[in-house]
Amino acid sequence: MMNLNEIAYRIGVLGTVIILIWIGLFKFTAVEANAIKDLVENHCAMGWMYKVMSVQTVSNIIGTFEVITGVGLLLSFFYKKVGMYASVASGIIFVTTLSFLITTPKVFRMVENFPVTDFFILKDIPFLAISVMVYAKTRR
Can you tell me the distance from the alpha carbon of 47 to that of 55, in angstroms, rounded to the nearest whole number? Predict the structure, then answer.
């Protein structure tokens, strides 16, 4: 029987899997490809991609990486080594997404004298924690 910590861990991993696969598949749409363009083109490690590939191709590559990573995290329940690699990949995804807060111009704005940003980026903080948890659990 699973204890409460194991249940919470599995819920966290499954939630991360759902988000990665869902958002990864959405990257194959023109709407999402255009939505991430400002974020990606201003990123010091990713902006070059638009010089050699189309907006949709870049989005498709990112989406493919997210879907494969999500599947890898799901497989972590059965294959520790796959989970270890997927946890590193998901960590890269979430650190990169969080870095958009630094690399994207005008990502912060003031609303009634309070600084706000695109809050969808901040969701990656707990997902990064899940990535670290999967890494710790699968490297044992």
Answer: 11
- Is-contact 107 124, C-beta < 8 A? no
Instruction: Mention every residue, 6+ apart, whose C-beta is less than 8 A from residue 66.
Output: 20, 21, 23, 24, 27, 93
Measured in whole angstroms, how far is the alpha carbon of residue 42 from the centre of its chain?
17
| pTM (2 d.p.) | 0.92
> Could you tell me the end-to-end alpha-carbon distance of the chain, in angstroms, rounded to an integer?
21
What is the spatial distance between Cα 100 and Cα 38, in angstroms, rounded to a whole number? 10
Cβ atoms of 48 and 55 within 8 Å: the answer is no
State residue 61 phi and psi, 5-degree precision.
Answer: -65, -45
CA-based nearest residue to 12, from 88, 107, 104, 77: 77
Calpha distance 50→8 (Å, rounded): 40
pLDDT digits (tens, 9 = 90+) for 109-125: 888 999 888 767 888 99
Instruction: Find all residues with CB under 8 Å of 134, minimum gap 6, and list them.
Output: 13, 73, 76, 83, 84, 86, 87, 90
